[in-house]
Amino acid sequence: MKPLRAIVFSGFFLLLLPVAVLATPIAEIEDNGSLSASQVIHAADFSTVSDGNIFQSTTIPHATVSGSLSGSDVDYYRFGVGAANSIGFFDIDQTSNGIDTLLTLLNAAGEVLAIGDDNCDSFVTSCTSADNDPGSTSFLDSFIGAYTFGTAGTYYLAVSSAYDYPAFSGYFGGALTRPDAGYGGDYYLPDVFSGGPASLTPVDLGAGDYLLHFSLANAVDPLSVPEPGAFALFGLLLPVLLMARLRRRRD
To answer: Cis before residue 31, ω within 30 degrees of 0?
Structure first.
């Protein structure tokens, strides 16, 4: 229920009006330009506050980030999914300076799961403002979803320029459908023989701001990302751990 605010004039209460309560966007924290430096979107950041620019905002928890792209910038965000078959969609709104964005959804290994470019399938048809989702002022705003997560775990979302198309190994799976039946980007199946982290080569298309909406059922805190040195240390310790295990079996 929305709180009521009293309007007072000359000591008299004249009218009570409902006041909309909107969640405060999370500020982007630089430098979030890599998977290891990705900004965490916590479970506590999500709410079901009504927002007309977000699909199913009162039933599917959502969080909003206020960010910006400048130069050859790529912004990475990390979030957690608590259960298999959870639904999520991700939406760029209110871009400034005409920036043309791209959204890339990746799994914990950095493999591409889905890509969202324009508000329509621009490889098939010409986009117009009629294709815009709520909150978008340009059909160049990106959208991914509705996407079904096959497993629980940690995932990443990258925001970049539209010409920063990721180089990756995988197979086209099909188009995704927005909750309003519009185009919601494409999903991909990682190549099990040569899959691996996607490579995004930043392209400078100018600077601008954006709002990024995360809508996610079963949001949880993601796992932390080990520092590169931690992987090297684990590699050094692995033989020691294996020897200790063998000795324990002999005993």
So the answer is: yes
Identify which of 110, 107, 38, 46 has the alpha carbon closest to the alpha carbon of residue 67: 38
Q: What is the mean pLDDT of each run of 10 residues along the chain (251 residues)?
A: 45 47 81 93 96 95 95 91 96 91 93 89 77 85 95 95 81 92 91 71 78 96 62 36 37 49
Please give the DSSP secondary-structure letter assigned to residue 247. H
* Cβ-contact 176, 145 below 8 angstroms: yes
Q: Is residue 12 in some structural domain?
A: no
**Where does the chain have alpha helices with state H?**
228-250
Contacts of 80 (CB under 8 A, 6+ apart): 43, 152, 153, 154, 155, 219, 220, 221, 222, 223
What residue numbers bound the domain in which 137 lies?
A: 25-246
Q: How many domains, the chain? A: 1
18 in any annotated domain: no
Other beta carbons within 10 Å of 51: 19
Burial class (CB in 10 A: 0-12, 13-18, 19+), 42: middle
Angle at 91 between CA 66 and CA 37, to 5 degrees: 55
Q: Is the model's pTM score more than 0.70?
A: yes
The CATH number linked to 106 is: 2.60.120.380
Beta bridge partners of residue 77, listed in sequence order: 39, 157
